[in-house]
Target: Alcohol dehydrogenase iron-type
Amino acid sequence: MFTFSLPTKIIAGPNCIKENAKEIRSLGKKSFIVTGKNSASHNGSLFDVQAALEAENISAILFDQITSNPSINLVRKAAQTAREEKIDFIIGIGGGSPLDAAKAIAVLATNDLDDEALFSGPYAHPFLPVAAVPTTAGTGSEVTQYSILTNQHLETKTSIAHPGLFPKVAFLDARYTLNLPKLITIHTAIDALSHALEGYLSVKATDFSNLFAEKSLALLGECLPQLSADLAFRVREKLLYASMLAGVVIAHTGTTAVHSIGYSLTYFKEIDHGRANGLLLAEYLRFLAPSYNDKIQAILDLLQLKDISEFSDLMHRLLGKKEEITAAEVMQFSSKAAQAANLKNTLIKPTEQDIAALLQKSLTFLS
Amino acid sequence: MFTFSLPTKIIAGPNCIKENAKEIRSLGKKSFIVTGKNSASHNGSLFDVQAALEAENISAILFDQITSNPSINLVRKAAQTAREEKIDFIIGIGGGSPLDAAKAIAVLATNDLDDEALFSGPYAHPFLPVAAVPTTAGTGSEVTQYSILTNQHLETKTSIAHPGLFPKVAFLDARYTLNLPKLITIHTAIDALSHALEGYLSVKATDFSNLFAEKSLALLGECLPQLSADLAFRVREKLLYASMLAGVVIAHTGTTAVHSIGYSLTYFKEIDHGRANGLLLAEYLRFLAPSYNDKIQAILDLLQLKDISEFSDLMHRLLGKKEEITAAEVMQFSSKAAQAANLKNTLIKPTEQDIAALLQKSLTFLS
Model:
């Protein structure tokens, strides 16, 4: 038994926005561009989007104040502007933060919701349509129904999940990722790896979601060992493709314990999201290996790695020195993660003690 | 550069219709069931659909007069009833013929079109939504934007192709295929094979469409040698899954010369559609092999076959005695096929002479 739904039209290739400007036309006449402060101008994506909008006679309001791990208040502020300007649709440009912010703004632009109802619904009105332009290869948000925000009430990151959040169209142009700093390339690629790997090991995995996970893992297996060097355009394209495929995976399987635990590392220790996952992945595989050796060997084979030690070495080579974690932090984070909703997708639901052990082994533990 | 769009929500598994009746609710309150005379009652699909509609308080008009290779006039007749009854949406149940008819009825129920405009558009009004319940594993129509009808004006089968024709939801329950006669199982499986294989060899093939084609070919490679025996449910599920994947492929790549040529065999000689393709496939591979050996070897590897001879033997074992074809028929059919629109998707566009040679070699030629 499986269900598969991918309402997002995916358009990929160099110059795909300008060559497919008409795809945006059906979304409306007045757009709201949601992005971060600088990167969209530097990598050329903002210019391409603006040119496409102009070609189609679509007006645009620019909101370029999205920060990493956007807060509820930030998206409220943007949604207020969107309402005042009576916009028809939203274009998110950037990494996971602007894309997830764009989706949350699409919810709040048409719905009056307090902070709790923002995540839980019910949603009285259809959301505004969203077009997504990823400029990192990691989030997969361009093909998911999730918007993940920093939730100061719960002291973690929490998700809005709703079929109405699938972008109507995603434009994948790897040119925008060409000049990403090495560290961002690594962290985002590991985020994609984490999606494909967790999706493959999710209780919700199906033959069909595995088709995408396996392809994503195979592509990442080719790319990961090269990430510390300068990357050819062909590698950038593979990473963006792999990241999208991994997004399709988690759209169907959800994420698992790695994300549940990683959110605390990001919220409290400001460790980048992809990096946080990457720190945890090897011990996560070791945790599941005694019961799910076949699945884990399949993942390692796809990644062209011999065993979990080789996997661990690769992560270490890419991530460098691990962050420190104190006993108090371990206690705090494991208690927090034990309440996370996506924990239930894990093949073996870890106890609070399991999570504590995993954190201790994954970071540099200051006992 | 690629574009991927799969607006159909796919729900698969035993009992998936009854367990997901709410998915139909959003399509409207009054339905039009389009199916053939007997099979939908015999295989249980009609009963399940009616039970799901009843559970959701949706009324239904039954149109069970769809024949093989439905004509324009037949779908006009059904569309007339649909209009008079002011229905909200259509449920197609059956093999390719009822599903394609359901889609054409969805066009004609809201648009006044003469026979030519039915295929070419423009279409002034949105089509009615369609839900699809395949009861053979071959057509893939449940996940495509095509409706293929017998066109007596052009003396061939022609397609309506429009994004509005993707079914909103497809229910894949292999139980309905359990008691299919052996010959239908074989012909429809070879139709799926033809889709996956032609899609893989289409000029429009992309990495992404190949992901689906490769998986479909691998599954068919496991199933095809067993088709002459009684099939376990697990094999029936694989066939239905492979057929859907192959449908996703042709939704993106179109079909190629095999379909162009096969349509004449069906129109003039009443050879079943899947069978017609199957007769042609081996010679089609031989035609392309000198220039595209790597791609063809990849297909053969996925099918677990050594070379084209083994492929040809497998087709012969499944299809039995080949039909005869006269010199006059070869001339007529190759002239017809040379005008077909999907010919241009072929890696090497065959000339009329190429097509004539392919037909002579593929059937029993009466010179």
In short: The mean pLDDT of chain B is 97. Residues 181-366 of chain B form a domain with the Dehydroquinate synthase-like, alpha domain fold (CATH 1.20.1090.10). DSSP finds 16 helices and ten strands in chain B. Chain B touches chain A at residues 1-7, 9-14, 16, 20, 207-208, 211-212, 215, 241 (CB under 8 Å).
